[in-house]
Amino acid sequence: MNLDERSSTLLQALRHDLSNWQLWAARAVVIGFAALAGLTVVALTWLTERAFGLFEQLHSVVAWAPLVWTPLCTAAIVWVMRRYAMGASGSGIPQVMAAMDGSVAPEQRHLFVSLKLTLSKMALTSCGLLGGLSLGREGPSVQIAAGVMHHARRYLPANAPVSHNGLLMAGGAAGIAAAFNTPLGGIMFAIEELSRRPEQRNTGLLLAAIVLSGLMAVSVYGNATYFGVIRVDQLSLALLWPGLLVALACGLAGGLFARVLLLSVRGSSADWFSRWRQSSPVAFAAACGLVVAVIGLVSHDSTFGTGYHHSRSLLEGGGETTPLYTLLKFLATWITAWSGVPGGIFAPALSIGGSLGNDVAQLTHYANAPTLIALGMAGFLAAVTQAPLTAFIIVMEMVDGHALVLSLMATALVASGVSRLLSAPLYQAMAHLQLQRLPQHKPPT
Hints:
Layout (H helix, E strand, L loop, with lengths): L2 H17 L1 H41 L4 H19 L8 H7 L15 H16 L7 H14 L12 H17 L2 H12 L9 H18 L8 E2 L8 H27 L5 H8 L1 H18 L9 H8 L7 H17 L6 H19 L4 H17 L2 H9 L2 E2 L4 H16 L5 H10 L10
Parallel strand pairs: 1-2
Helix pairs in contact: 2-5, 2-6, 2-7, 2-9, 3-5, 3-12, 4-19, 5-6, 6-7, 7-8, 7-9, 8-9, 8-17, 10-14, 10-15, 10-16, 10-18, 10-19, 11-12, 12-14, 13-15, 14-15, 15-16, 16-17, 16-18, 17-18
């Protein structure tokens, strides 16, 4: 084919593209709803920050208030959720994965993602932080943004080249991108956790939607990463032993966390707590809230909320912590999730991992603690989620410079590998639990 023939073919394709109004209408709808999904996550961020701020104000006025307020909030959240929005429970990521499952009929997707669940998730997650519970907003952001993007299907032309799963994937990834201000992390999350069809991974329109959603957060909060900028010193072989210790510790702790969380949420064991959770979920939630309140008071308030402030103070070198924080935050996050309230584990996992990295820095007398804190964040998140590339990229986008990139990647891969020896992939297993809510659903073999 000569140059003239190629030019003619290109002009014909361009003319056809420009004259196809349905294609442009579909693009406009997807881009418009992507911007709306990003703004919805921004609204969730504002709500949760204000809610936790109110909790801190109450606690500063009445020191013992969490012993009453936190159990009441936890019980009220579970009661409302079970009565009006059962699909809003837990993280939100398993719901999106379940909605993308081939066994789910189109008319059943509203059980997992919808505008109703989006609004319910926003309100209930904010109430969880209003009660001081140890949870994050990143997992809920996935379900919230996916619900907004999935609603776009109603406005697409009949022959639009965008599938239900494509919208759900873009929405879920947009939630991560907007929550952490990490567009690359959102794209990798779509590939590693949500994508089921290879052709979806190269859809430029959906990738543009993910990036645009992340830009909505930038437009409101500025071009700042979740924990600020992690600055590391020049690396040397002195990092090898402490770094390996962080990777192994995070793999073991993260795998244990995922295993314990799965066992408790499934409720398949015959222990007294599981039976109580099944027979009296609201009373059980109140008891969990009381335990979280006691842990918070014992930890001098450091385990309340997402753990964001504690992690940031550690990275900035102004925070003081003890090895007990890692254990207490671990317990508070697990018990919060066990109670059944809506809420994610990304931010608490980053806090636990960062604290574990700081513990190793103190144990080995490593001079540059922020380096091991960053490795701990990536390692523990990778171990809990068994999504090492997503964890590595989310933390990588917080690091100033590229000196730590290979170390972050190695830590995430090692920790994820160790975790797989202890637990099944967390979100896949929890997605199977969500699928059991379908009428006459047969669990996968």
